[in-house]
Design a protein that fits this description.
By secondary structure, this protein is of the alpha+beta class. The chain has 18 helices and 13 strands. Helix 9 packs antiparallel against helix 10 and helix 15 packs parallel to helix 18. The structure holds calcium ion (2 copies).
């Protein structure tokens, strides 16, 4: 379970001085025994990080915009040196210092975009330690894209992870979910409480072992969109999963693992979709095969039906090209989407209500107009039936950075991508305008930012790193529409941000960067007895709520928004992983690689 409450909700809660709501909705916080190998973060490391040069620790494509952020020291110039040497390859002038209110730092910008020769480099500024080593290389993001997809494989339910694919992270099969029970909240005449249903496969949602349709929706969509938008990047990619080498790109094999589970979450008797498959309580800090509590299908909801309808409509058109390998699958998915859509229109306002005996994540959402619009948009694109376009009420539908509870932006992303294949009813001017208006707002923030990113103080909500990446995804859509280079550079900046050009000087992706997240709130990474975390996962990231601090024996290094990050297993509020945070990492790393000029 992970949550990304809207910023206004965070502000409202902060104003009320009330954090209990978020504790109740977040991950458990009940199971962790802080490990002895804690990160050692403390107040002095926070001060120290303010004196470091912040840079994307992985690096840049030769033609990428390239920026580092430098503390406000007396120096007015910077150098780029070959890593570990004194050899200067470039020198430039630092910008004037400016204060970033999100981090409380006064910083300068070092721009070395003109350096394009592949190699390993560091930024050097008099009076400061040299930056982390980073690369300029034409394939600099290939391993990142592959690992961020493979993270989904590592989070698969119902499969043994074999050493030939998982290496030292091999583990026994957990959660077969072939015999789960209908919870009383989900009971119907055809399936009374206690009915045994098979619902295998799918991904564990986050640091926990449960499976939630709403969050699966946006996550699976984002992987499918990455493939729809940049197929050539994935067509020959080998992620080293059991399906590598078959006829499908691995990213689609991985998406299919979850889609097959999602199909089992639809009640064949009426088309409704169960909200989640979970235990009654969160599991302890154990490996998947050691977590054997009874599992339940809980309550059908309108949001689940609509997110399911949207994703199945997308999947139907994506898998249509694999009719030979997967006969009937595309048609089956479209039928499932239409049945869920019909159920949602008969039951338009069934909001998730947590039963008294269930204590896992809620993914509750009372605003369903965006889910209706997204499902309608995807059904329209796949079927070209004009009635779906009308149903999405385009004139009333605005664009926004997507999150699990606010999916209207996904409708615009798909409409913009398929704009040349739509029927005459679609308003092309409106589609372009919605994409550009949002991206221009993000661009304005980027222009004004002392850190040269679109992230602003109020974006530091639960899962802030996914905000950064979803902002990038929306900037990418504008670049794809009109080719204005600033959109691409601003998207690159967001990727730089999560890879180390941030106020914590940390690359938030496990296994990538010299100083990266080591102790994510992720049960397998904590319980497997292996020192390093499973690679390819992005941590939630800084946010000042610190809803977990009562259960953490290690203090957060700072209360300031952009520094409020604790690299410790206990920190489900800043250091959990989640499928809906990893999916935009896949999208953005692939998009930057595919779109940056060669
Ligand atoms: Ca494959
Ligand atoms: Ca919503």
């Amino acid at each position: 379970m992970s949550i990304t409450p809207p910023a206004n909700l965070i502000r409202m809660i902060a104003a009320l001085g009330f954090s209990g709501f978020l504790v109740a909705c977040g991950n458990d916080g009940q199971s962790s025994t802080p490990s002895a190998s804690a990160s050692g973060s403390n107040a002095s490391s926070s001060n120290a990080s303010s004196l470091l040069v912040k840079v994307n620790q992985l690096g840049f494509l030769p033609e990428s915009a390239k920026v580092a952020i430098v503390p406000d020291v007396a120096a007015t110039r910077f150098k780029l040196i070959n890593a570990g040497t004194a050899t200067e390859v470039f020198s430039g002038t630092l910008s004037a210092a400016a204060m970033w209110d999100a981090s409380g730092e006064s910083v300068k910008v070092a721009d070395f975009s003109s350096v394009k020769i592949p190699g390993d480099y560091q930024v050097r500024v008099e009076g400061l330690t040299d930056s982390q080593v980073f690369s300029i290389a034409p394939d600099v993001y290939s391993a990142l894209t592959a690992a961020s997809i493979k993270a989904f494989y590592f989070n698969r339910s119902g499969i043994e992870l074999l050493p030939e694919f998982a290496g030292k992270f091999a583990r026994p099969l957990g959660h077969p979910d072939t015999q789960v029970l209908i919870h009383p909240s989900a009971a119907s005449d055809a399936r009374p409480a206690g009915t045994v249903v098979s619902s295998p496969k799918g991904w564990y949602d986050a640091g926990d072992y449960n499976k939630y349709i709403v969050n699966s929706g946006i996550s699976t969509y984002t992987l499918l969109a990455a493939y729809e938008h940049f197929p050539s990047l994935f067509n020959n990619q080998n992620v080293i999963i059991p399906e590598s080498g078959n006829a499908l790109p691995d990213v689609l094999d991985e998406a299919l693992w979850n889609l097959e589970w999602m199909l089992t979450m639809q009640d064949p008797n009426d088309g409704g979709v169960y909200h989640k498959l979970t235990n009654k309580n969160f599991d302890g800090t154990v490996m998947p095969h050691q977590a054997t509590s009874e599992r339940y299908l809980v309550q059908k909801t309108t949001a689940a039906a609509l997110d399911f309808a949207a994703v199945m409509a997308v999947a139907s058109r994506v898998f249509a090209q694999y009719e030979t390998q997967l006969p009937g699958l595309s048609a089956k998915m479209l039928k499932a989407a239409e049945a869920a859509w019909e159920w949602a229109n008969i039951h338009p306002a069934i909001v998730y209500e947590q039963p008294a005996d269930v204590h896992t994540g809620e993914y509750g959402d009372k605003t369903l107009s965006d889910e209706f619009a997204w499902a309608a948009a995807e059904l329209y694109i796949t079927t070209r039936v004009d009635g779906y376009y009308t149903a999405l009420k385009p004139v009333d539908l605005f664009n926004s950075v997507p999150s699990w509870g606010n999916v209207q932006g996904l409708a615009w992303v798909s409409l913009a991508h398929h704009r040349n294949q739509l029927t005459a009813v679609a308003d092309q001017t409106l589609i372009a305008s919605r994409i550009k208006t949002l991206a221009d707002n993000l661009l304005s923030a980027w222009y004004a930012s002392p850190y040269k990113i679109s992230m602003e103080k109020n974006n530091f909500v639960w899962g802030s790193n996914s905000v950064a990446l979803n902002q990038a995804m929306m900037l990418v859509q504008a670049y794809r529409l009109d080719g204005k280079r600033d959109y691409l550079d601003a998207a690159q900046a967001q990727l730089d941000y999560v890879l180390g050009r941030n106020a914590t000087d940390t690359s938030f992706v496990t296994g990538f960067g010299k100083k990266s997240t080591l102790h994510p709130h992720h049960r397998p990474s904590e319980a497997d007895g292996i020192a390093e975390p499973i690679p390819g996962f992005i941590a939630g990231g800084p946010q000042p709520g610190q809803q977990d601090k009562a259960g953490c024996q290690t203090a957060y290094p700072s209360t300031i928004a952009a520094k409020s990050y604790l690299d410790h297993y206990c920190s489900y509020a800043s250091n959990e992983i989640a499928i809906n945070w990893n999916a935009p990492l896949v999208y953005v790393s692939a998009a930057i690689a595919a779109l940056t000029p060669k």
